[in-house]
Amino acid sequence: MAVIGLSELQESRWIALIGLIEVSDGIGAALDAGGRADGYALGLLDAKVITEPTRDRLARIVSTATSSRVSQIERESSE
Asked: CB under 8 Å to 13, separation ≥6 — which residues?
């Protein structure tokens, strides 16, 4: 997942934050990980590393990953 404007280190950090969402073991943990990833994207925007459209794209990625993980956790807990 190449993110235009990010250094290799920043991109690695972004991927790791998304990975935390995907491996979270509870709804609270998924929401927390999503918040951390979203906060990281906001920090990149504030530092003028990324543009507003790129930040919006990253926010959609976080939202999708978080909602998917929460749905998966809910399904697993209802079985």
From this structure: 40
73: left (phi over 0), alpha (psi -120 to 50) or beta: alpha
Query: Which of the four pLDDT bands, split at 50, 70 and 90, describes residue 47?
Result: very high
The angle that helices 52-78 and 27-46 make with each other, rounded to 10 degrees, is: 180
Give the pair of three-digit tokens for residue 38: 């979203």
This model's pTM is above 0.85: yes
For 4-20, the pLDDT digits (tens) are 778 999 999 999 999 99
Please give the C-alpha separations between residue 50 and each of 7, 13, 16, 72, in angstroms, as whole numbers.
11, 15, 18, 31
Q: How is the chain split into domains, by residue range? A: 27-78
